[in-house]
Amino acid sequence: MPASESLLLAPFKGITTKAWRNAFSRHVEGFDQIYAPFISGVGDTRINPSKLQDIIPISDNLSPTIPQFISTNAKEIILLGKTLQDHGYDHMNWNLGCPFTRIAEKFRGCGILPYPQMLEEILNEVFAKLTIKLSIKTRLGYKNPEEIYTILEVLNNYPIHSIILHTRTGKQLYRGNTDPDAFSTCRNISLHPMVYNGDIYNLPGFLTLKSAFPDLTTWMLGRGALMNPFLPMEIKGHLLSDSEKRTRLTAFHKDLFDNARQSIPQEKKHLGWMKAIWYYMSGVFSDGEKLFRNIKRTSSISEYHQSVEYTLDQPFSDHSQQEHYFKHSIKHI
Ligand SMILES: Cc1cc2nc3c(=O)[nH]c(=O)nc-3n(C[C@H](O)[C@H](O)[C@H](O)COP(=O)(O)O)c2cc1C
To answer: Which of 212, 275, 278, 282 has the fewest other C-beta atoms within 10 Å?
Structure first.
């Protein structure tokens, strides 16, 4: 893969917090940029710094990090852009893809996609004053996969930095097939740089997409990288031995655990976050589903450590198991 290509880590609310992002940067590596999970409700008069604690100070970030927000309030977007610039950021990402009903029903996330005129009004107000770079992360539509076409035509009229497209509708959530053909159609409509996101679980899967879009330079990896943190390195041709992977994974886990112990003092919540990480990361092992069940069942820190120690010693999964993990296995847990 040519060195000029970029890999971006997708944001995961509740998982890829600052602690996760920095532990990843210390022990794994491979991403060119990391997108932070969305912030919302910062208001349009004065931003309470506690709302930004996951992304400030910028010097905390061990990898280039792009903050993300959810909003339909132009004044709020302008104020957030200015505040992030004051904190040293030069780029922010607008989440127009979140599929959850309580967000989408308020026309936020993918909920705005059926209403291109509403989007246009916000963009007119925003771009009259915005000086920070703005990219967009979106889907094919809320309920109808053709909504994106009009949205892209609207976006063509504004200086958008790039558009990250997850080729599902909001109604599909994260299930069912993605639609690479729709990505191709969208690339023909959009005048902006496009980024592919969705179901890249392993190197062969990436290479198949790469052969469909040989001139595409930027890719966003999500669950595939939460499951196999070495995926971005593998895509960049940096293959590690099993023993090196085990050493790095053990250090990554210890970093996550220790960091969370300080920031989440309640044992149950602390374990809850670690289990959310293992929900995905168990897939890097060949018997991941069973290993995750064991970790999930633990109710004290000592039981948890025993189960994790056992897990970290198990054989790694192969590509076909990784492909299978989200589609067929883990959803039944
Ligand atoms: C638990 C969870 C939290 C997520 N949080 C965010 C978020 O904060 N912002 C966002 O743009 N997407 C979010 N997403 C979507 C992912 O960033 C990504 O687009 C999605 O998982 C599809 O990519 P993948 O198939 O590579 O995982 C989230 C997804 C999940 C499952």
So the answer is: 212
Answer yes or no: is the C-beta of 13 below 6 A from any ligand 1 atom: yes
Token pair of 246 as six digits: 């085990």
Parallel/antiparallel/unpaired status of strands 194-197 and 218-221: parallel
| Cα–Cα distance, 136 to 254 (Å, whole number) | 34
User: In the numeric block, which tokens belong to residue 159?
Assistant: 């200086």
Tell me how many helices (H) and strands (E) the chain has.
14, 8
**Model pTM score:** 0.97
Ligand 1 lined by 163 (C-beta under 6 Å)? no
State which of 8, 9, 13 you would mutate to test the pocket of ligand 1, scoring each by most atoms of that ligand within 8 A of its C-beta. Answer: 13
d(CA 37, ligand 1 centre) in Å: 8
* CA-nearest residue, atom 23 of ligand 1: 198
CATH number, span 32-198: 3.20.20.70
Q: Would you write out the chain's pLDDT as a tens digit for each of its 333 residues?
A: 444 679 999 999 999 999 999 999 999 999 999 999 999 999 999 999 999 999 999 999 999 999 999 999 999 999 999 999 999 999 999 999 999 999 999 999 999 999 999 999 999 999 999 999 999 999 999 999 999 999 999 999 999 999 999 999 999 999 899 999 999 999 999 999 999 999 999 999 999 999 999 999 999 999 999 999 999 999 999 999 999 999 999 999 999 999 999 889 899 999 999 999 999 999 999 999 999 999 999 999 999 999 999 999 999 999 888 888 876 665 544
